[in-house]
Write a sequence for this structure.
């Protein structure tokens, strides 16, 4: 199928996707809002019917991801995950050994809890642990994401992509009446995912010294944060001294942006 075979609906879909990616690239609007508006736009233009637009929300893979978020949040709220992770991490001032002790639990958890919520749950735990151990956070956050992706490729429920593909496969083979191929079991991709995960783990460990930031000093200031003071806040309308922003514990105020200009 070439460009000449596309009708106005096809070109509209392509244009809509390009605009959506540009908006998300600007990091001003969340992907959920962008794609919800885009889906509504396609329905309004007649590209999709209401039933077709709503069909994705009934996908078994999507529903499984939603329930896995609830499971992960339940585990996190009990406090058991934090204590388990900190015990596994122990204490280490070596970035290399810290990576090893961080990536292995993250990969295992991501294989059974879905990698997206695992990253969200482990990030604050990992930042706190790194500061206590004297290891640069820069050395750990990107490998955390990589470890979650690698672990997610080992099982069916490890990543949202696998679940969506599984749902699409089931629908496709049911239409073809090839019912023996419908089921996608949890460890069907493990023979391919596990070697891939091991190789990715070894690559990160062997190249972390050159490819990851944070080599200059273990105790370098590693995070630059921007915070917004909302109306009604205890610090709103006060000077830096009155708001006690000159004596922040473990942080230093670099500047204040107010009224469209830097005043500090």
């Amino acid at each position: 199928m070439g460009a000449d075979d596309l009708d106005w609906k096809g070109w509209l879909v392509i244009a809509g996707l390009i605009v959506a990616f540009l908006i998300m690239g600007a990091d001003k609007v969340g992907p959920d809002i962008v794609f919800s508006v885009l889906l509504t736009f396609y329905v309004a233009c007649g590209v999709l019917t209401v039933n077709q637009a709503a069909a994705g929300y009934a996908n078994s893979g999507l529903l499984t991801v939603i329930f896995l978020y609830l499971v992960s949040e339940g585990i996190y709220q009990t406090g058991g995950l934090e204590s388990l992770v900190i015990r596994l991490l122990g204490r280490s001032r070596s970035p290399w050994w810290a990576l090893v002790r961080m990536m292995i639990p993250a990969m295992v958890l991501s294989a059974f809890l879905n990698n997206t919520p695992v990253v969200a749950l482990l990030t604050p735990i990992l930042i706190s642990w790194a500061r206590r151990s004297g290891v640069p956070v820069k050395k750990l956050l990107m490998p955390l994401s990589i470890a979650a992706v690698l672990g997610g490729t080992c099982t069916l429920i490890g990543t949202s992509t696998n679940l969506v593909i599984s749902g699409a496969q089931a629908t496709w083979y049911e239409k073809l009446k090839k019912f023996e191929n419908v089921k996608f079991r949890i460890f069907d991709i493990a023979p391919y995912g596990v070697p891939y995960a091991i190789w990715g783990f070894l690559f990160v460990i062997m190249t972390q010294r050159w490819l990851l930031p944070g080599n200059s000093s273990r105790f370098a200031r590693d995070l630059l944060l921007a915070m917004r003071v909302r109306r009604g806040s205890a610090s709103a309308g006060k000077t830096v001294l009155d708001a006690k922003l000159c004596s922040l514990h473990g942080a230093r105020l670099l500047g204040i942006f107010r009224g469209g200009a830097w005043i500090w």
Summary: The beta strands are 257-258, 261-262. Residues 217-221 have pLDDT under 50 and may be disordered. Residues 58 and 240 are 52 Å apart (CA to CA). Residues 67-158+188-214 form one domain.
